[in-house]
Amino acid sequence: MKRRHLLGLRELEPLEILEILDSARSFREVLDRPIKKVPALRGITICNAFFEPSTRTRVSFELAAKRLSADVLNFATTGSSVSKGETLIDTVRNIEAMKVEMVVLRHGSSGAAQFLSTHVKANVVNAGDGQHEHPTQALLDLYTMREHLSRLQGIRVAIIGDVAHSRVARSNIWGLTKMGAKVVVCAPQTLLPPDIQSLGVKTSYRLEEALDGAQVVYLLRLQRERQDGGYLPSLREYARTFGLKVEHLEQLPPETLLMHPGPMNRGVEAENAVVDGHRSVILEQVTNGVAIRMAVLFLLWAGREGTPAVREMLREGSVG
Ligand code: CP
Measured in angstroms, how far is the CA atom of residue 135 from the centroid of ligand 1? Predict the structure, then answer.
């Protein structure tokens, strides 16, 4: 990969997305081996700098780095000098001064990863910035859809829920539309940004209409922490009108996938029987996330350094 940082899917070319998805397939095979480790990033140090809570993304990046034999440093704001007023740039520059080559950043402010990337020498990977983008989540989602449906071109994806506050939705919309998928977003009017159609998606305010013919039903988390603006009458009302129920799935083609980025509000975005049903690939998304993050870390480093070992692995088409 030619670029130095992964900041969002908006900036990626379709061929770059394909390169990541194809590389992730090789790394996914590594995860099924008895010894799930390759030497691709031996000697490299990666810092996971998480300024916002996370379970999946943080653990997944840590595992991905360890599977690539990198050294990993986990930085969380709790207990750090951020509470004494140290800025994001100073914090990361100090970590970088300890010879860290790559920084994975989650931050509550939109644009934080892009801002950081202009102030440090390390490769920066955006692990979710405010309501802007969550590129590795969308890449693992695209990977999961492609593995099940054999393609992305022309597939019909319904994204249901809190699009307005969702960086996951934004990254998926960029990625899916670039790869030729047909996307409809569905939510109460208050949870759909007014200009969302400019991103090349259709909109619907009716769940049944959005689900019609969908091959992927992608549920978004209702971001309870951002609902104090009076966007909804109540969670119960949302669940009644937009929550996915078994009877909805019965109307869909047999190959339709149910996806969710997590964390989920059980009983709100979908009934338990839907979440745990046979169409759900939610835990598979999580497994694939490790492979995608391995691919991203590896390709960014390979593009930066082209070290003899990396060049050899790329030439052989093998990652270990
Ligand atoms: N999907 C996702 O970003 O989950 P976490 O917030 O747990 O990382």
Answer: 12
Q: What is the pLDDT of residues 158-189, one digit of tens each?
A: 999 999 999 999 999 999 999 999 999 999 99
- Cα separation, 275 vs 140, in Å, equals 18
Among candidates 265, 226, 223, 213, which has minimal Cα distance to 244? 265
Is the pTM here over 0.90, yes or no? yes
Helix ranges, 55-134 (H):
56-67, 88-97, 112-117
Name the closest-CA residue to atom 6, ligand 1: 54
Residues with CB under 6 A from ligand 1: 54-57, 128, 134, 137, 261-263
Q: Which of 48, 50, 51, 55 to mutate to test the pocket of ligand 1 (most atoms within 8 A of CB)?
A: 55
| Selection from 104, 95, 115, 124 nearest residue 51 by Cα | 104
pLDDT class of 227 with cuts at 50, 70, 90: low
Pick the atom of ligand 1 nearest to 57's CA: 8
Listed as own residue / partner, the contacts of 127-130 with beta carbons closer than 8 Å and 24 or more positions apart are 127/48, 127/50, 127/54, 127/57, 127/58, 127/61, 128/52, 128/54, 128/57, 128/167, 129/105, 129/167, 130/167
**The ligand 1 atom nearest the CA atom of 127:** 3
Each residue's pLDDT tens digit, 104-150: 999 999 999 999 999 999 999 999 999 999 999 999 999 999 999 99
The minimum-distance atom of ligand 1 relative to the CA of 134 is 3
What letters, b where the CB count within 10 A reaches 16 and e where it falls short, cover 141-175?
bbbbbbebbeebeebbbbbbbbbbbbbbbbbbbbb
